[in-house]
Amino acid sequence: MARHGSELKKRNRRRKLSSTLFMVPSLLGVFVFFILPFFVVIYYSMVDNPINASFVGFENFVNVFKNVAFKTASKNTLQFSIIAMPLAVILSLLLAAMLDRQIPLRSQFRTAFLTPMMVPVASVVLIVQVMFDFNGAVNNLLGGFGMAKIDWLKSEYGQVVIIFLFLWKNLGYNMILFLAALESIPHDILEVAYMENANAWQIFWQIKIRYLSPTILFVTILSLINSFKVFREIYLLTSDHPYGPLYMLQHFMNNMFKSLDYQKLSSAAIIMSLVMVLIIGALFLAENRFGKDVEE
Fold this sequence. Notes:
By secondary structure, the protein is mostly helical. The radius of gyration is 25 Å and the shape is globular. 77% of the residues lie in helices and 0% in strands.
């Protein structure tokens, strides 16, 4: 019996050792590509330059906050996220609620909203350029109503184009997430609500929204992250230095990287990361409070 127990212990140790060895490459990759660069960024933000490497504390952060380009980029990024993120969540939720009902051409609508996910970014940018060029389709349409042409990407309406592009790309994926969550709501609860003569609005707000709170949180975080990644499309449309409202934080950091100003680049990256952590933390707290009664 004792011999059998010792053999079992040896087998368990070998199993744990083999499992650990299989995890080593993944852990090493996480350390090299995520953890180590994180500390390198913190190091660069605390020194005067990579050569002298003299410790300057928070001086680089102060210089970044005083930088006019950083202020402009922060304002534009915040403004874009405040508008685009709620629209991406609300519109995709409404679309999912509509497609959750038995409506004509349901599958065709779903396919149409998922199509942008299959289109390469360069093709999407080309379509937007054709639509919003000074002599493009949108201006031709406005001209038919007697309205003056607008140079969309070089005017105060530049963010309207990017918000349209952002929503067109992200609504379909968000909608599918909400559709999956709607399908997972217990049908017996909905049947009881119908038997109690609850109307469609009461069922949607009092039951469905409650059960959708984790998905709403996930889609909100995903939309927030995607709103900070819109730089790729703006860069392809306008290059390094776009017109005022389209100059985002990623433009600032990209330009700092090109000029080898690692101190401002690192400081701006840390500031942006901290802001995102605070926003995501606030979202988790709100979801925990709102969806607590459902979990219980």
